[in-house]
Amino acid sequence: MMWGNGYGSGWMWLFGIMVFLGLILVIGAVVWAISRGNHSGGQGQYGADRTGQPQPGSGPGSSRARQMLDERYARGEIDAQEYRDRRDALSEGN
Question: Rounded to two decimals, what is the model's pTM?
Fold first, then answer.
């Protein structure tokens, strides 16, 4: 009999542990990537807050509308009062 001198002897247990640790690392990386992808600074997709409740005026197009309003104000195309009025109208849900 060959105890420890044949194929798969001695170091095979180390290879098994390395494969297991590699699998754990891959699973951890996938979980980390998914959790980082879902983190959006307090608001989820289409303006839902962390509780999952959608905010008024937070549909798919409202963030673009708010961005356009901010750009117009920054360029000086509208004054502060008009900016506030339009911003409030957007936040009310149109």
Answer: 0.36
